[in-house]
Specification:
Largest sheet: 2 strands, antiparallel
CATH class of the largest domain: Mainly Alpha
Strand order of the largest sheet: 1-2
Order of helices and strands: HHHHHHHHHHHHEEHH
Shape: elongated
Helix content: 40-55%
CATH topology of the largest domain: Vanadium-containing Chloroperoxidase, domain 2
Distance between the termini: 14 Å
Number of strands: 2
Strand content: under 5%
Number of helices: 14
Radius of gyration: 22 Å
Length: 454
């Protein structure tokens, strides 16, 4: 049996008309984002790509992780209502064995995405995203009349979507950010140069987890770098000051450090895309894909909750605040620089210091969560892969395309940690511990959820 769901009062949710197959319009040629060709062509991986392309409408990476988890839980539960191979996540009625699996997958994903996207304000991006969703849906089901098997599959998908939508309604995600009132002080996080955004996602630390028992279950212990007068702090301060500065990175525009700093936030950290690359050619069936992507995305969203719990438990300052601090930090091995800026110092979203505390780091946490699910699912850390990512222009550096390859998952996760130091936005220990925290979350998810029934 699954662990009991969190003791959080989740309000009942009545889907707004999207538990049926009523939306079938196909807007010719409309795509929200260009989708890569499916790595292992089946309905699960196709909908994974549609989901990732559409999820940005709902907010930043934490909200996107929540969307992906909900979609893939619904897909997993719809398939297992037809042929129970793994433990279900939410409670949904059993479906006839004759129900069409692809119809169930398409209906489940379609209904969750519509329920989350439809309430958003009108925009060109929303219209294009819904057109992509409906186009993918129509490719699977076409127009009525439907066969009995398709109708049964559609009902299974609608039921699974409704179950996860009800379960997550009122989970705390509607208020991701709360007022931040800590005054400036030694070691205390504050809005960061050059654009000084208000701290965000402190509300996410209180959100009901998908799998963890509570948000603080995997909170990291206080860091050695919290002793501002100590050797560990001086070492990490001087490392990021040297290798992560705007001046150093733009002086070496094509170096490995600069490429790594840019690669991971530009798409290297898209672990759904990486999982698609890894499953290619492995002959996994739809049930296996559904379980893998559900576990992956549950771990990702719970990893983000764990990250913000730790961040706002300690509120430790970012390198840009520490290095520009002109008062004494009582450490003779550090020298302030009031004009210092990190590589990620532009005003472009995703290319500036993120608006929340340093410790621990979110991107490596997501890497840790993903690699732990993948290594436990496949029973090996040696899962070679490569990714090609288009890097946007930043700080006077032109856009370019970079391909990076990894022999092991561990190698990739470690590089993702270094990427945030090279970008100048994190001290190293928070990045290393971010990977560790993500691995702990991923391990817990695999050990306790969606386990094989036979």
């Amino acid at each position: 049996m699954n662990l009991p769901h969190r003791a959080v009062a989740l309000r009942h949710h009545s889907p707004s008309g999207h538990a049926t197959a009523s939306t079938r319009s196909v807007l010719a040629g409309a795509m929200f984002l260009a989708l890569a060709a499916p790595a292992a062509a089946d309905e699960v991986t196709d909908w994974n790509q549609v989901t990732v392309a559409s999820a940005g409408l709902l907010g930043g990476p934490p909200q996107q992780a929540r969307v992906a988890a909900m979609v893939h839980i619904s897909i997993h539960d719809a398939l297992n209502a037809i042929d129970p191979r793994y433990e279900a996540y939410a409670i949904a009625p059993a479906a006839p064995a004759s129900a069409a699996p692809d119809a169930a997958i398409a209906q489940a994903a379609h209904d969750v995405l519509h329920a989350l996207i439809d309430p958003l304000p009108a925009s060109a991006n929303k219209t294009a995203a819904l057109a992509t969703i409906d186009s993918r849906y129509a490719q699977t089901l076409g127009l009525p009349p439907y066969s009995s098997a398709e109708t049964q599959g559609m009902a299974a998908g609608a039921n699974a979507a409704d179950a996860i939508l009800q379960l997550r309604d009122g989970d705390g995600s509607a208020i991701p950010s709360l007022p931040y009132t800590l005054a400036p002080g030694l070691g205390v996080h504050q809005p960061t140069a050059p654009n000084f955004p208000a701290p965000a996602y402190n509300g996410w630390a209180r959100m009901a987890p998908f799998a963890m028992r509570h948000p603080a279950q995997f909170r990291m212990a206080p860091g050695e770098i919290f002793d501002l007068a100590g050797a560990a702090y001086a070492r990490e301060y001087n490392e990021v000051k040297q290798v992560g500065s705007l001046a150093a990175r733009t002086a070496a525009p094509d170096s490995a450090k600069t490429d790594i700093a840019r690669f991971w936030p530009a798409g290297g950290a898209n672990w759904n895309a990486t999982a698609n690359a890894i499953v290619a050619g492995r002959n996994l069936d739809r049930w296996q894909h559904a379980r893998l992507f559900a576990l992956l995305n549950i771990a990702q969203v719970d990893g983000s909750i764990a990250v913000f719990d730790t961040k706002y438990a300690y509120n430790f300052w970012r390198p840009v605040t520490a290095i520009r601090w002109t008062g004494s930090d009582a450490n003779p091995a550090t020298t302030p620089d009031a004009g210092w800026l990190p590589l990620f110092a532009t005003l472009s979203p995703g290319l500036t210091t993120p608006p929340y505390p340093d410790y621990v780091c979110g991107l490596p946490n997501q890497s840790g969560a993903a690699v732990e699910v993948l290594r436990r699912y496949f029973g090996s850390d040696a899962l070679p892969f490569s990714r090609t990512v288009a890097l946007p222009p930043i700080a006077g550096l032109p856009g370019k395309t970079v391909t990076r390859g990894y022999a092991t998952l561990r190698q990739a996760a470690a590089e993702s940690a270094s990427a945030r130091v090279y970008a100048g936005i994190h001290f190293r220990s928070g990045c290393v511990l971010g990977v560790k925290q993500g691995e702990q979350v991923g391990r817990f998810v695999v050990q306790h959820y969606l386990r094989p029934l036979r």
